[in-house]
Amino acid sequence: MKIFKSKLQLGLLAFLALSVFSCQDEVIVVDPVGDYNTNPDAYYVGEDAIKNTLNLPLDGPLDYSINTNNSINNFALHNFSEINNDIATLGRVLFYDTQLSKTNKVSCASCHKQDKAFSDDVAFSEGFAGERTERNSLALGAFVSIQQHYDDPTGNNPITPSFFWDERVETMHEQMIETIANEKEMGMEMHEVVERLNSESNVHYRSLFHRAFGDIEIDSEKILLAIETFMNSIVSINSKFDLEIAQNQNGFEVGNFQGFTDAENLGKELFINKCGSCHSSTLGSVSFANFNPSLGPLDQTKANSGLDMVYSDKGIGALTGNTQENGVFKIPQLRNVALTGPYMHDGRFETLEDVIDFYSENIQNHANLDPRLKTPNGQAVKMNFSQNDKEALVAFLGTLTDEVFIAEEKYSDPFIK
After folding, report:
1. Three-class SS string for 80-144?
2. Could you give the CA distance from residue 226 to residue 193 in angstroms, rounded to a whole number?
3. pLDDT at position 313
4. Regions of the chain short of the pLDDT cut 70
5. DSSP, residue by residue, 11-49
6. At 169, phi and psi to the nearest 5?
7. What is the pLDDT of residue 66?
8. How far is Cα 177 from Cα 224, in angstroms, rounded to an integer?
9. Spatial CB neighbours of 175, under 8 Å, sequence gap ≥ 6
10. Contacts of 225 (CB under 8 A, 6+ apart)
11. What is the enclosing helix (H) or strand (E) of 330?
């Protein structure tokens, strides 16, 4: 009897063991990743997740390609490689996804808001743990195209621009890794981002990665490439300034623009004469052919603008240890500048009027002050703008605003709220 009972127990144990292994086999068989790898077309749980999670058209991506035949801006957009729409779509989702931060609270878009030309509206942005960033958020919409400014496939750009206020990295790839890992910004290493996006709660990413790259494998290089592709698709080419310069055969600096008001034309003239030496390449194409070279060296991307006599943030000097670079910061681009306040590396100026007041009367005679801001006798220049001049400069800078791109759906938050 005992032997029989023992055999029965053994049989039951064997049955249970087989059942367990069978269940495990079933789990493997129905595992979404395995099934998708075997037959991607058969696995569209991800498509359902897209519909439930994202405002994306399922019949195909929006068009992110750059229109190189744009009659208004053909001077600025030429010989561009086409943007892959599926990769840009994936990049758009990643750009707005708060899961790229340690506490799931901030995304790239938290500090780069579309309606602010992809800048922030505070002096220092809030990071994943509630701490504030050390410097003001630079605008991504300050260029005709980020790709043209930094990559320039035409080979016409003599500048070798770099990223961040202290120009510490030379590629968008490095910039993204630093920003995502920054202990005050997003706080995530790339391997952590990969692990999070691979979780079952992110099943929609499997379809997005498959559409973009032909497989569902998620890795850091694909993530970075997708975000970079989306950022390179951000093009601002529809401002009043763009329309006028396309219709003016004499270029930017010769004569009035017919569609400008008197104030805007006066502001344009003042800008050329007073601001162009530092900002000669910041309005549009980096190969702005009609700008007078006498306005200043086009290979100069940084300057000490005399904000202070003593800098608490030493800028590039803090990075290099070179005291002659104390207070030297990147010269920001000015496209859409009316949307991107507050201004300067520390956001000290709330409005354009504040900025113009500073350059009019308050440039400090720092030892490292840029020569373009000095008089022949070596003192800080005083531009002494009249009130009418100041209003004209603000009016002209307002013509650089592109109302079209700040409302375009393809650049907007894709998540269903």
Report:
1. CCCCCHHHHHHHHHHHHCHHHCCCCCCCHHHHCEHHHCCECCCCCCECCCCCECCCCCCCHHHCC
2. 14
3. 97
4. 1-46, 67-81, 148-161, 249-251, 253, 280-300
5. HHHHHHHHHHHHHHHHHHHH-HHHHHHH-GGG--HHHHH
6. -130, 155
7. 73
8. 8
9. 163, 164, 169
10. 87, 91
11. strand 329-330
User: CB within 8 A of 142, min separation 6: which ones?
Assistant: 117, 119, 282, 332, 333, 334, 335, 336, 337, 340
Distance of CA 299 to the CA centre of its chain: 22
Strand partners, 303: 329
- Position 237 scores a pLDDT of 86
3-state secondary structure of 329: strand
User: Rounded distance, CA 292 to CA 277, Å?
Assistant: 10
For the chain, the helix, strand and coil percentages under 3-state DSSP, each to the nearest 5:
45, 5, 50
**Cα 94 off chain centre by:** 13
pLDDT tens across 311-342, in order? Answer: 999 999 999 999 999 999 999 989 999 999 99
- Which residues are within 8 A (CB) of 233 and not within 5 positions of it... i.e. 6 or more apart? 64, 65, 66, 83, 88, 91, 410, 411
Copy the structure tokens of residue 131: 């701490």
Structural element, H or E, at residue 303: strand 302-303
The single residue listed with the structure tokens 């750059």 is 66
Amino acid letter for position 284:
G
- 381 to 170, 366, 375: CA distances (angstroms): 32, 12, 5
Residue type, 24: Q
Q: How many residues does the chain have?
A: 417
Show the DSSP H helices in 234-275 as ranges: 240-247, 262-270
Tokens representing residue 219 in the block: 């890795």
List of long-range contacts for 320-329, beta carbons under 8 Å, 24+ apart: 324/368, 325/368, 326/368, 327/366, 327/368, 328/302, 328/303, 328/304, 328/368, 329/165, 329/166, 329/302, 329/303, 329/304, 329/305
The pLDDT of residue 81:
56
Report the sign of the C-alpha dihedral through residues 339, 342, 347, 353, in that order: positive
- Has this prediction a pTM greater than 0.90? no
Please, what's the largest Cα pairwise distance for the chain? 114
Separation CA 152–CA 161 (nearest Å): 11
